[in-house]
Amino acid sequence: MPVDEPRDEDAALMLRVAGGDTAAFASLYDRYHRSVARFAHRFVQDAGKAEELTQDIFVKVYRHAGRYQATARFKTFLFRVATNHCLNEVRRGEYRVTHVVEEGEEGRPVEMPAPEAQSPERAVEGRELEATVAEALQRLSERERVAFTLCRFEGMAYREIAEVLSASEAAVKSLIHRATLSVARAVEAWQAGARAPARSEA
Asked: Which pLDDT belongs to residue 151?
């Protein structure tokens, strides 16, 4: 029986990858490399380590292409692989780091205006806010971080995130709600400190 034509282009490409089409794999890699690298960065907070994880994830996607079922969106399949790989590697300890986002690192947790549109003061505030959000994400549980990242930064629906985490939609909503409150409290605390008047030296 012939396989039904998948409804989205990514799924069609992945089926071609399963048949050994390396050009199709290159197309998917080009489309999703940055998203996966950003996702991995939220676990390790290091651009180099995030790139290592990203390469490993795409190798797994290629090797396991034959297991892909076109009934699932490719993005859901990709981030299920990415989530499992990142969690396994971080739990092993090899990729665990303690520093927060530094200027120039990839995978920024929030979108900021272009640097040329910022004053030096605004640029400093932007980097401080990035670090605040990154630290807040590191304090979340692993599943909260995955759910929050996929929802807020990758725009995935609750149903898709539930598939990634093998959880119910209700559980995903709860994870995202708790994570959002934690990040919001961290940002509010930063804003309160940033707006406080500087103390005089006298």
From this structure: 95
